[in-house]
Request: fold
Amino acid sequence: MSVNPVSLVRTKLAAALRGRVAGEDALEVSRQIWTAPGERWFTPEDAIHMIHQDASMFVGGIRSLLLQSLHPLAMAGVAGHSGYRADPWGRLQRTSTYLAVTTFGTQDQAEELIAKIRGIHERVRGKAEDGRPYRASDPHLLRWVHVAEVDSFLAGYSAFGREKLSEERRDDYVRQSSFVAAKLGATDLPQTYAQLQQQLTDFRPELASTNGARDAARFLLLSPPLPLPARPGYGLLAAAAVSTLPVWARAELRLPRIPLADKAIGTGMGAVATSAIRWAMDAPTTGLKGD
Reply:
């Protein structure tokens, strides 16, 4: 039997993405999540399903890490405890598993994972560069991480998602995401997109351009731990993520200003990259989805 070279490339690309994002046992983990019997928090018709399955999550994920780093206490926790430099893919895989289980898994699977994460959060504490103490279980700090994440996933989907989001669907996504974040211990969470934007504005006085934030940005954008052949594709995603950041966030991270023409280029790069990822993820038997 002859092998279709296009199908072979597609399968290899999907396998590489799967291994990076979800780990070597991604297919088995995916099977356990999707086929386990039991009630689930969300249905395939929900906005959170649509967004969390889309290839634009790759852009939103990079953007969220950049944005989250601007809170000195959140950045101190990441730098001190997540091992993002020594094991960046491990951190990505843990985040991927959390999103997959809480979005697509059974209620029992989600509750079990959240209880485990809350236990870890209770042990994560320390001091930031400025001497202020932090703890990962702080409801206010959890809310910042959530707000930055949800805003980033929505920005990524709005720019590069498969479908146009209505205001109602956007509000649904904010509300559904906040339901999960509340289980983690975050409080006073936004329930609409307008509330999300207001909370993002309210956090501005707490944000700062720290050494840790700028170092994380350089690591994510200039020195990703990737083999050389994978770097051009990642560069497209990174450029797309930067193009969707607010101007003030780019300024805080000391990223280059993006004129209208350059932003259009970044958007074009993101469209190319997410289309390629979606093509690979839609391949049969990959265990990934790019809807």
Observations:
- The mean pLDDT is 82.
